[in-house]
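Subject: two folds for Thursday's group meeting

Dear M.,

Sorry for the delay on this. The cluster queue was jammed most of the week, so I only got both jobs back this morning. I'm pasting them in the order they finished. Each block is the input sequence followed by the predicted structure tokens. Could you check whether the formatting survives your parser before we put anything on slides? The first protein is the one we discussed after the seminar.
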Amino acid sequence: MRNTENHILFRNSIRRGTGKAYLLATRHHDCDFTDEIISACVKNYAYDGQCEGSRAFYLYRIIQAHGNKKRIKKAILKALANEAKDTWTLTQLFALALLFAKEGDSQFRDAIYQRFYKNTIEGSDWAGYEEIIELDGFSGLQHIATVLGQGMIDDPTKWQDDMILLHFSEKYPEINARSELEKLAVRSLQIARYLSGIDEVEKTISESRVVPENYSSLLEEIMNRKVLYSLRKRAVTEEELLTVANALIEEEDPSHIEKMLHFFGYFKFPLDSDVILKHARRKKNPNNVIVARAIDALKLIASDAVRDFALDRLENSRNPEKYVGLLICNYKKGDSVLLSQIASHVKLDYVMEGLAQDYSSIYENNLTKESFQPLDSIYNKMTCSYCRECIIKAMVKNDVVPAEVFEELQYDCNEEIRNIARACSGVHC
């Protein structure tokens, strides 16, 4: 008989990638979870498939524990042959196929080779190369070079860089892949074209390299750089910070104010917080992001004025989640109640992702047992396994991991979360 409650729990877990799905699969053989498993296999439900890594091993283990393997395998083979829209679903299918091929299932080995560079997704014609190299080493690389080279012969607009060669060299450092392919290129027009294509791309990159600009001061660099992210790890003197801070006080150009506030999102503003609060209280302007930059800068400042501003916004704003990070340096006992309320009302994944980063930072910096409720609320909603990892690290640091959650962590889709569970076995409240 279909257990509706267990199916709902299983569906929720397998789509988020938590270990509860594995535990349900091993403990409830009376429940047929096959449909839910197939759904998670033929569609990558990760919030960000590119950043979160493969879920293939996670799904494979659930399949091995419970499920109609024959029907699941059939569905994976069909999806691998036909997926033509989602790159990260396709890479998941290739990765699952590899695991079955390693079992000795020739259907999946053949399916990997047959799908590679066929019915390609724009910008993702590389999908499947890792699996072929994993299966057959250099002979697999030879096949890849031949197929890609033929593709460039058939369509002169196609190009290939050295990504695959670099990957192969990292996996098999004892083999000089370029040299070995050059030997084969003497008798293979396809491999020769593949190698010449790589050289063409390298030449284009070399010729288009931008000469680094030199700046006379940090302030000049902030004003002229298009992207400030690279500044976040540079060494900055107190004198330089004061120079930029004083310039911000005098500045009237909104675009310059925005850049300086952006900079102070990486480095603590050295003067009175009222300077930044003035910008945080502005009316939002669709033509700039001054308010957002100011809020980011305030996250680094501990002061009664910043805390009062934060509490006002957290209690009265339509979007309180935008101000949660202001408690990182201004948290006080009892704030967990408000944070739990905010987490309970959030439904959108991208909002939850931002909350996860802020909540984990708050409780990494303010260790307290009362962190459990807000962190647990986030954990049970997260679709992003990377953000879930941040939450788990905060829970571990505060020693508030419940026993049932700790058990799930050992089977999470995120390898780092599984490693955390192994490293701190027994850490739970």
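Second protein, same layout:
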Amino acid sequence: MKVAIQGELGAFSHEAAERMLPRCKVIPCARSVEVFDRVARGSVDAAVIPIENTLAGTVAEHADLLVAQDVFIVAEFRLRIIHNVIAAPGVKLSALKRVLSHPVALDQCRDFFRKHPQIEAVPFYDTAGSVKHVIANELRDAAGIAGTQAAREYRAKILKSGIEDDKQNFTRFFLIRKSLNRKSKSSGTKSRFDLNLPKNLIPRGANKTSIAFKVRNMPGALFKSLSVFALRDISLSKIESRPMRGKPWEYVFYVDFLRGDDEPARNALRHLGEVADFVKVLGIYPGA
């Protein structure tokens, strides 16, 4: 099974992909949009994408792409993020003058740099990419911050493990597949919402649903939208708004609720379709 990820081999997405699908072939992509395009075109079977970190929050670009592209979430996975200082074999921690990594990773390891003021934190495009760069260029005074997968991938040495400030650092990943069902669009003042879900992509035991919707600009619109879940005792585990690309001051709401493809959930979604401008079911899957 070919699975696309954003970033280099050895990235946390690579580790998550192999944990979710142990025998998969991981296809690294430079940009997130390439990952989604590959899934939509069918050149890969699936993709594993980070969607939310407990410290950094939602990955905004991936949230936007879930709405824009014809993909469907079929699984989620929570990965404990452990940052390590990784260098070429033979290099010692005392020899380091700079450590490279993704800006988010650097920000999550402030205590390390506070304890080692002689080491400069250098932003890099990717966690695993920083290790790849250090090893490929045979740097003896530099290291990268990445996961253990990167050390294995590039035959590098872990100089110090678990340097993240917060040990409750987790990232939630989605496994996405190609879907032919497009989001519903508004027509005039009435919303058209066709609850034609891709049954072949809904796994057995699915008990969680992710959706995106846009409300009309009128008093009580959000209250009415959320009431469709409250009336049916459906618990929301997340709600967040994001700006709509190309439409200033208009917003999309992202909601996760704790039901699978059952009658109460379907009734709630149909009801939501009556009060929202558009609704897109992003995925129905077993909760991690």
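Two things I noticed about the second structure. The domain at 1-80+169-180 is CATH 3.40.190.10 (D-Maltodextrin-Binding Protein; domain 2). The longest strand covers residues 247-257.

Cheers,
T.
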